[in-house]
Amino acid sequence: ISSTSSSSSIFLPHASTGLPSPRAVAAIIALRNEYELSIRASKHLECLLKALLMMGPGNPGRTNPLSAAQPGAHHGAAQNAHFGGARGLNELLEELLKRYPTAVGTMFTDANIKAIRLIVGMRNKLIHDISYTQMDNRTKFVEAFKEADKCLRAARASFLINEQQQTAK
Question: Residues of 17-37 as b/e, b for ≥16 C-beta within 10 angstroms?
Fold first, then answer.
């Protein structure tokens, strides 16, 4: 069951970049249903993490992170291999930190990483714990989501700047 707002294309990644719209953050946090909020927020951040994992040596930053997937199959074998087999938000975060260990402290603070893990934890509790029917602290979840989005977008911009500097040399 989806809300009427979820049928909007604002939640879908942009066709050319594969990235979610920055406007999607406001639409996601406006969702009343906490289950939908947690899932939409997770999908949004997964998309940003996949975009970061597509970057780096031999992977131009302008690559669409969803381009390897067939329509409706965002976890194709080739794509999963590119993401180190990572499929979920926490696995994508771990793969990013493994691939770019120097990013911690430069692009990501411990607070940024904790924000993403808070989202994973609350979402998992909502989905898997039958006695957990609402978020303990929706405001904290929303703030963590906004912080994670801001951090991942800034990291992507930093990767793009570094890529341009390397290309110019």
Answer: bbbbbeebbebbbebeebebb
Burial per residue of 60-86, b for 16 or more beta-carbon CB atoms within 10 angstroms, e otherwise: ebeebbbebbeeeebeeeebeebbeeb
Q: How far is CA 165 from CA 22, 158, 159, 161, 169, in A?
A: 25, 11, 10, 6, 7
Confidence (pTM): 0.77
pLDDT band at 13 (very low <50, low <70, confident <90, very high): confident
DSSP, collapsed to helix, strand or coil, labels residue 64 as: coil
Which tokens sit at 16?
Answer: 């050319």
The yes-or-no verdict on residue 22 having pLDDT over 70 is yes
